[in-house]
Amino acid sequence: DLEPSLAAAVKGHHGVYFQVWAEDGVNVYGTAPVDLAEVARTVPGVARLDAEGMRVWSEKGRSYRGAVLRIGGYRVLVAVLMDTHLRYLAQLRSTLWLATIVACVVAIVAARLAVLWGHAPLHRLSERISKIDSGQLDMRLDATRVPRELHHLVASFNVVLDRLEDGFVRLSAFSADIAHELRTPVTVLTTQAQVALSKNRSADEYREMLYSSLEELERMGRMIGDMLFLAQADHLQSQSTFSSVDLATEARDLFDYFEALAEDRGVGLVLEGEAPPVRGDRLMLRRALSNLLANGLRYTSPGESLSVRLARSGEYVELQVQNPGNDIPPEHLPRLFDRFYRVDAARQHKGDGAGLGLAIVKSIVEAHAGSVAVDSTAGRTCFTIRLPALTAET
Predict the structure, then answer these.
(1) Integer Cα distance of 369 and 363 in angstroms
(2) What is the pairing mode between strands 55-59 and 62-71?
(3) What are the tens digits of pLDDT across the range 218-271?
(4) Residue of 21, 41, 38 lying closest to 29 (CA atoms)
(5) DSSP 8-class letter at 354
């Protein structure tokens, strides 16, 4: 009865073989290849078909998977030809490797293209930036032509260009002003020397020409000193020398210094108010206040008083220097702190300086994280300095 049952079980299954032996080793029924049957004769039989009982045979280039069962008084070999499955797995493995390689190549190429496409705006920005030189500081980057993520970068770079252009324009104007200011005294000295050498003169005439030359040289020396001080104030980067500065004390000391000049001009000096100290360079702040006092004394009418007022304004100390006198026209106020700028150009060579005093004041105040402003109305001109008040943290 075993033979028909096995035949029915494997019927219609390609590559399935079985072989039946009796206990005495007699072949009862079989469809397995001879080589497989011979090998299976020596294999111990198992009581049931499970993973532990399964075996793999390879005979004459062909692979089988199966088991030898003990059923009643028989030994039964059941095996499946695995060549087709192995070829399928090998082909599948090769296909998977090929697909993996192709996928990696495609991924690398896609990543490369994505990087190039993503960096294209940066390359365009870099190319445009590389074309900017000192003669093209007016160029600006267009934020609408770059991705949104780069808008902030472009805006920040344009702000830097604005600062560079402003600094370059100011430097160019400063250089031109220096050349203009120095050319005049040099021309005067040259002319005087030529006149002196044009013919023989008396000792008094030579002495007079030397005095005149000395005045021009002293004026040039003061101008050069102011320019050096201005450069020092502009590059006051380190705050290691900063200390506590009492502006009221500095103002009183300067009043003593300007007292003789004020009396000579018939001008009074008044100090009003109180304020906490500030943190800064004492000599530079003293220079700024001195320039404002000297400027105020120059334009205060006789019989009037020049006043210095101190007050606390939030986190700042506010210092005002007020002098009565003629109003400064409104169109001149925005440029009053420019270097070499004068409201009255006719006073250029009448002992009023080179026009650097207020520019020095602005540079010193800004180097101390402060601000300076001017207002001139109703017959009174007021310069206001705001400096951070000294706190426990500073």
Answers:
(1) 10
(2) antiparallel
(3) 878 877 877 777 776 666 655 556 889 999 999 999 999 999 889 998 999 999
(4) 21
(5) S
pTM listed for this prediction: 0.55
Instruction: Specify the 3-state DSSP secondary structure of 93.
Output: helix
Of the candidates 292, 251, 284, the one whose C-alpha atom is nearest the C-alpha of residue 364 is 284
Strands annotated E in the chain: 16-22, 27-30, 55-59, 62-71, 74-81, 243-245, 268-272, 278-280, 305-313, 316-324, 371-377, 380-388
| pLDDT reported for residue 93 | 94
What are the backbone dihedrals phi and psi of residue 153, each rounded to the nearest 5 degrees, phi first?
-60, -45
Give the CA radius of gyration of the chain: 50
Whole-angstrom Cα distance, residue 390 to residue 243? 9
Tokens of 267: 């001008």
Q: CA-to-CA distance for 316 and 390, rounded, in angstroms?
A: 9
pLDDT per position as a tens digit, 178-192: 776 677 778 888 888
- Does pLDDT of 14 surpass 70? no
Residue 159 exposure: Cα atoms within 13 Å on the Cβ side: 6
Count how many residues are written for the chain.
Answer: 394
- Provide the terminal-to-terminal Cα distance of the chain, rounded to the nearest Å: 107
pLDDT tens-place string over residues 62-105: 888 888 888 777 778 888 888 888 888 899 999 999 999 999 99
pLDDT for res 69: 81
Answer yes or no: are the C-beta atoms of 77 and 66 closer than 8 Å: yes
Q: Which amino acid is at 350?
A: K
Q: 297: which residues sit within 8 A by CB, 6+ positions away?
A: 258, 261, 262, 265, 267, 306, 323
CB within 8 A of 378, min separation 6: which ones?
327
Q: DSSP of 30-73, one letter per residue?
A: E-S-HHHHHHHHTSPPBSS-STTT-EEEEETTEEEEEEEEEETT
Contacts of residue 178, defined as CB under 8 A and 6 or more positions apart, other chains included, come to 227
Residue 6 pLDDT level (bands cut at 50, 70, 90): low
Amino acid at 253: D
